[in-house]
Amino acid sequence: MAEAGHSAGEYISHHLQNLTVCKKDGAWVWNECHGNFFAINVDSMAFAILLGLVLTGPCSAASPRRRRPASPAKLQTIVEIVVGFVDQSVRDTFSHPAKSLVIAPLAMTLFVWIFLMNSMDLIPVDWLPWAAKAAGIEHLRVVPTTDVNVTFAMAISVFILTLYYSIKIKGGWGFTKELILQPFNHWAAIPFNFALEGVSLIAKPVSLSLRLFGNLYAGELIFMLIALLGIYQLPLHFAWALFHLLIVLLQAFIFMMLTIVYLAQAHEHH
Hints:
This protein is mostly helical. The chain has eight helices and three strands. A hairpin with a 2-residue loop joins strand 1 and strand 2 (about 25-30).
């Protein structure tokens, strides 16, 4: 809910500011980093790392090295269902399942980690920022995937892995041929092929990151607009939260599946 004396625009603008730190005039400063390319969004990094640590607990429950009880706990059952679902998704995409031994754990990590980060959007927008303000922290954004730096970092990591496996599986010349001899296998079409394939290659991480960022950013904005209603926000908040839960889950699934598809394409010979 907007504080007294603050307009709706000021309220939303305040909630959209990250807790940042950067070096300015030789000294480290907080929340004075507008336009600084090297500014660090501390809140995004902190919540992303924290949720990554939370992820390791449930995932260790499904480790094959652990002794399994005769009747597994509910958490372990849920984790094993998710692991089985992700593993099957990878096997259905890869023509050679043996090649997916590294990809499946990566896909599992991305799916659950992004789902946890997205789920932070379901917490009422004022709760954690109010608690932070009481502790003397002026700005706090709790959804890492509404920070384009986080989504781009994950997408670029997937892009680097795609390039690595493309060169490893196909060789340097095989990868180069894909860039210059497709879709038209003629020397005269090399400039056109390279431009077309280059744009297609660069578009993968850009679309991967912006799709996740855009959907979660829009969802966060709607929660803020609902919060402006004050005490009357509760019915709308819970209604939108139920719908947004589908977006939270769907965006994690889409990011995971596109990662699997891109890495599967990197393993294919044309």
